[in-house]
């Protein structure tokens, strides 16, 4: 018998297909959600290698990032409806791929279309105890159901499509415990912003967070989803909540949830998915719910949080020079003054939407503030439901009229203004009160400024015309008049220093049935380059927390190829608005234009989005190795999958290498010997996982290696059918019973 285990341990253990002695595991994936941005190159890889989608019954695709959110009344097809050529190409490419491979698809005329992380739960495709992946960092959302759900890169998307498995090593266990009563007017979004303010954007790196505590136990599924969603903003691989009666009540009757006797069997199993008494957590953070104020962000990182009643931080009071520089840079970008009152910050835009806060409860909360009021003069406010079904439900409840009468724009489902990838974008200098999850520089459009907050707070800001305390706008429906719900303390402070944690499956889809897998190919399908020794003058980059939006902004993700992105690498740092080069940026300087190595002072390189376009852009520019003190998890993986190497070294050694780089001295990154060699012969040793090293040095394709374990994958699928039959789709089941299944169609559930 194993010792006491956490929820994460249990779900992980239940999915092991094959474990190597070195800790690398082939993990079975129950659910794979696919969108148009991160899948074209994966389907192309599949085609080139002559492979099929292994489990169509566990795969669901939709379009969300590129779709315009304007009325679809005139829609006839995507090719004519989507005006922007690159966006159109990604959407049409997915439409072609789902047809070609038989993948279940919610397209633009399907009411079930919406943001990937909204539609999965809505359909009951997301189930407790499952493993769920998507080429998207906010896959963590599905952890609200007690699923192990995480974002992956495009190479991994291809791996999952081909093998229904993924290569993983075990993460650490982290617990975030929130006990007590939340103050009136404080929502789960405030809680999560507060948590990220406490642990920092790298606080959860290498860990899976389990959220627990009395405050969390009372939360609705929507509220839990908002928190799990933003686990990635805390750097975590995933965020999980133990499934309970609230979870089961949400799932019961959903189209793909189990039914009848199978439902009872499933619930009985789901109830076992709790952390055992005495299970080990590598770190624990405890938060008192009553201490959490309505929280917003002031800066350019989700960790830059402050109470709505607080003030903009003063760099002069920063703990150290590094912090001072960080605050100054953020204030300059955000156009804010030190010590300015948060509630005095005027806004131009409001965005209520995104996979964090576009579900029915979110819209209800915003509507309760908007009801009977008007959007302030000069503010453009939009509400974008997370899916066609959320939109429909809201319209049934009359919320659309509440919004439109108040002057909000009522839109069609999609990612919209969460990221600058479709027509909904900020223009330079515009300032947005946003219910989304990322406030990185340029996130909602080049030069745009984002303040993250809850739906109620965003609605309050729309009405006030500046950042505002939603508690002042809470309405008493019976009286029909606005009344302040609580007395507000003048200056609630939120901790500014980071707290160090003390150590301490449905009746799915239909399709192809038993998989037919083509013979393993031994050479990399995409021709993965070998990595041995890479040398030359490294480019120094002195900045921490470099996010993937900064490495490659969203507007450049609209490609269906892996190549050609080098020119857009670090676009906002590299180019002026007129397209001319900024001479001060390191990669524009003569000595570094051909650098193959980047040395970064400051950790958490590659945080944020899962876009594999980030390592592709680096590679296309010519950079094959990045040396930093730490890397965000998904980015780290993505580098390896493309024959490039993330090298982790201690800060002191990096400081030496930065000086070498500035002096134009050559470095060599020697993977076989696992050292970085300086020009004077000194060597700094680094660690690397032995399996990954083997793949990189030999240019091996991981899919082929995994398919060598075909017998084990099949055995696992048999075991899964026996233990958790509700995870198999209907046609899959009938194929196994020997009945002839009909050809897959995209609506055949
Ligand atoms: C496009 C996709 C890769 C990206 C993500 O991984 O998060 C996007 O959804 C985002 O929010 O930045
Ligand atoms: S974070 Fe924004 S862009 Fe990314 S999936 Fe969610 S809504 Fe879409």
TrEMBL record:
<dbReference type="InterPro" id="IPR001030">
    <property type="entry name" value="Acoase/IPM_deHydtase_lsu_aba"/>
</dbReference>
<dbReference type="GO" id="GO:0051539">
    <property type="term" value="F:4 iron, 4 sulfur cluster binding"/>
</dbReference>
<keyword id="KW-0479">Metal-binding</keyword>
<keyword id="KW-0004">4Fe-4S</keyword>
<keyword id="KW-0028">Amino-acid biosynthesis</keyword>
<comment type="function">
    <text>Catalyzes the isomerization between 2-isopropylmalate and 3-isopropylmalate, via the formation of 2-isopropylmaleate.</text>
</comment>
<dbReference type="InterPro" id="IPR036008">
    <property type="entry name" value="Aconitase_4Fe-4S_dom"/>
</dbReference>
<dbReference type="InterPro" id="IPR004430">
    <property type="entry name" value="3-IsopropMal_deHydase_lsu"/>
</dbReference>
<dbReference type="GO" id="GO:0046872">
    <property type="term" value="F:metal ion binding"/>
</dbReference>
<dbReference type="GO" id="GO:0003861">
    <property type="term" value="F:3-isopropylmalate dehydratase activity"/>
</dbReference>
<keyword id="KW-0411">Iron-sulfur</keyword>
<keyword id="KW-0408">Iron</keyword>
<keyword id="KW-0456">Lyase</keyword>
<dbReference type="Pfam" id="PF00694">
    <property type="entry name" value="Aconitase_C"/>
</dbReference>
<feature type="compositionally biased region" description="Polar residues">
    <location>
        <begin position="297"/>
        <end position="310"/>
    </location>
</feature>
<dbReference type="InterPro" id="IPR050067">
    <property type="entry name" value="IPM_dehydratase_rel_enz"/>
</dbReference>
<feature type="region of interest" description="Disordered">
    <location>
        <begin position="296"/>
        <end position="318"/>
    </location>
</feature>
<dbReference type="GO" id="GO:0009316">
    <property type="term" value="C:3-isopropylmalate dehydratase complex"/>
</dbReference>
<feature type="region of interest" description="Disordered">
    <location>
        <begin position="486"/>
        <end position="508"/>
    </location>
</feature>
<dbReference type="InterPro" id="IPR015928">
    <property type="entry name" value="Aconitase/3IPM_dehydase_swvl"/>
</dbReference>
<dbReference type="GO" id="GO:0009098">
    <property type="term" value="P:L-leucine biosynthetic process"/>
</dbReference>
<keyword id="KW-0100">Branched-chain amino acid biosynthesis</keyword>
<dbReference type="InterPro" id="IPR018136">
    <property type="entry name" value="Aconitase_4Fe-4S_BS"/>
</dbReference>
<dbReference type="InterPro" id="IPR015931">
    <property type="entry name" value="Acnase/IPM_dHydase_lsu_aba_1/3"/>
</dbReference>
<dbReference type="Pfam" id="PF00330">
    <property type="entry name" value="Aconitase"/>
</dbReference>
<dbReference type="InterPro" id="IPR004431">
    <property type="entry name" value="3-IsopropMal_deHydase_ssu"/>
</dbReference>
<dbReference type="InterPro" id="IPR033940">
    <property type="entry name" value="IPMI_Swivel"/>
</dbReference>
<comment type="pathway">
    <text>Amino-acid biosynthesis; L-leucine biosynthesis; L-leucine from 3-methyl-2-oxobutanoate: step 2/4.</text>
</comment>
<dbReference type="InterPro" id="IPR033941">
    <property type="entry name" value="IPMI_cat"/>
</dbReference>
<dbReference type="InterPro" id="IPR012235">
    <property type="entry name" value="3-IsopropMal_deHydtase_ssu/lsu"/>
</dbReference>
<keyword id="KW-0432">Leucine biosynthesis</keyword>
<feature type="domain" description="Aconitase A/isopropylmalate dehydratase small subunit swivel">
    <location>
        <begin position="528"/>
        <end position="651"/>
    </location>
</feature>
<feature type="domain" description="Aconitase/3-isopropylmalate dehydratase large subunit alpha/beta/alpha">
    <location>
        <begin position="9"/>
        <end position="465"/>
    </location>
</feature>
<protein>
    <recommendedName>
        <fullName>3-isopropylmalate dehydratase</fullName>
        <ecNumber>4.2.1.33</ecNumber>
    </recommendedName>
</protein>
<dbReference type="InterPro" id="IPR000573">
    <property type="entry name" value="AconitaseA/IPMdHydase_ssu_swvl"/>
</dbReference>
<comment type="similarity">
    <text>Belongs to the aconitase/IPM isomerase family.</text>
</comment>
């Amino acid at each position: 018998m194993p010792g006491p285990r956490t929820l994460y341990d249990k779900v992980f253990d239940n999915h092991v297909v094959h474990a190597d002695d070195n800790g690398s595991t082939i993990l079975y994936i129950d659910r794979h959600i696919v969108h148009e941005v991160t899948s074209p190159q994966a389907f192309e890889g599949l085609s080139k290698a002559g492979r099929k989608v292994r489990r169509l019954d566990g795969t669901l695709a939709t379009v969300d990032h590129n779709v315009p959110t304007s009325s679809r009344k005139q829609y006839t097809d995507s090719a004519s409806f989507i005006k922007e050529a690159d966006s159109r190409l990604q959407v049409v490419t997915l439409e072609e791929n789902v047809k070609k491979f038989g993948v279940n698809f919610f397209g633009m005329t399907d009411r079930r279309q919406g943001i990937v992380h909204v539609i999965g739960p809505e359909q009951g495709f997301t189930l407790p105890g499952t493993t769920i992946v998507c080429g998207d960092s906010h896959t963590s959302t599905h952890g609200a159901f007690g699923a192990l759900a995480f974002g992956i890169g495009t190479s991994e998307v291809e791996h999952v499509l081909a093998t229904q498995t993924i290569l993983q090593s075990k993460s650490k266990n982290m617990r975030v415990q929130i006990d007590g009563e939340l103050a009136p007017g404080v929502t789960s979004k405030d809680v999560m912003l507060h948590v990220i303010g406490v642990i920092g954007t790298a606080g959860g790196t290498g860990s899976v967070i389990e959220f627990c505590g009395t405050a969390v136990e009372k939360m609705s599924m929507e509220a839990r989803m908002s928190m799990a969603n933003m686990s990635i903003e805390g750097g975590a691989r995933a965020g999980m909540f133990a499934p309970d009666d609230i979870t089961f009540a949400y799932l019961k009757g959903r189209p793909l949830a189990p039914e009848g006797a199978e439902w009872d069997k499933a619930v009985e199993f789901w109830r076992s998915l709790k952390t055992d008494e005495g299970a080990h957590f590598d770190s624990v953070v405890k938060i008192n719910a009553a201490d959490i104020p309505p929280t917003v962000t002031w800066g350019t990182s989700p960790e830059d949080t402050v109470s709505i009643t607080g003030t903009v931080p003063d760099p002069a009071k920063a703990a150290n020079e590094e912090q001072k520089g960080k605050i100054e840079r953020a204030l300059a970008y955000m156009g804010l003054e030190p010590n300015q009152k948060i509630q005095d910050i005027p806004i131009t835009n409001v965005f209520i939407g995104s996979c964090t806060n576009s579900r029915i409860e979110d819209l209800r909360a915003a509507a309760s503030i908007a009801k009977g009021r008007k959007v302030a003069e000069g503010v453009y406010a939009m509400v974008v439901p997370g899916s066609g079904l959320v939109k429909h439900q809201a319209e049934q409840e009359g919320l659309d009229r509440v919004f439109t009468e108040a002057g909000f724009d009522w839109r069609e489902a999609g990612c919209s203004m969460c990221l600058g990838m479709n027509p909904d974008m900020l223009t330079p200098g515009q300032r947005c009160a946003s219910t989304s999850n990322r406030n990185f520089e340029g996130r909602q459009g080049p030069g745009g400024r984002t303040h993250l907050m809850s739906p109620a707070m965003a609605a309050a800001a729309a009405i006030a015309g500046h950042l505002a305390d939603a508690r002042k706008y809470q309405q008493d429906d019976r009286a029909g008049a606005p009344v302040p719900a609580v007395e507000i303390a003048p200056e609630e402070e939120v901790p500014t220093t980071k707290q160090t944690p003390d150590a301490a499956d449905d009746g799915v889809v239909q399709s192809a049935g038993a998989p037919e897998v083509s013979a393993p190919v031994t050479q990399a399908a995409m021709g993965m380059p070998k990595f041995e020794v890479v040398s030359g003058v490294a480019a120094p980059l002195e900045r921490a927390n470099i996010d993937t939006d900064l490495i490659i902004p969203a507007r450049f993700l609209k490609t269906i190829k892996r190549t050609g992105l080098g020119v857009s690498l670090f676009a906002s740092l590299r180019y002026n608005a007129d397209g001319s080069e900024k001479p001060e940026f390191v990669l524009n300087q003569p000595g570094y234009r051909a650098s193959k190595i980047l040395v970064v002072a400051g950790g958490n390189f590659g945080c944020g989005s899962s876009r594999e376009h980030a390592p592709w852009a680096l590679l296309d520019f010519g950079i094959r190795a990045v040396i930093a003190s730490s890397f965000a998890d998904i980015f780290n993986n993505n580098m390896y999958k493309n024959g490039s190497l993330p090298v982790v070294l201690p800060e002191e050694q990096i400081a030496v290498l930065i000086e070498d780089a500035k002096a134009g001295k050559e470095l060599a990154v020697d993977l076989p010997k696992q050292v970085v060699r300086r020009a004077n012969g000194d060597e700094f040793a680094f660690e690397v996982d032995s399996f990954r090293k083997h793949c990189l040095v030999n240019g091996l394709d991981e899919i082929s290696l995994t398919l060598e374990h075909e017998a084990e994958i099949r055995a696992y699928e048999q075991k899964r059918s026996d233990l958790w039959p509700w995870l198999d789709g209907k046609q899959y089941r009938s194929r196994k019973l020997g009945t002839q299944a009909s050809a897959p169609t995209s609506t055949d559930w």
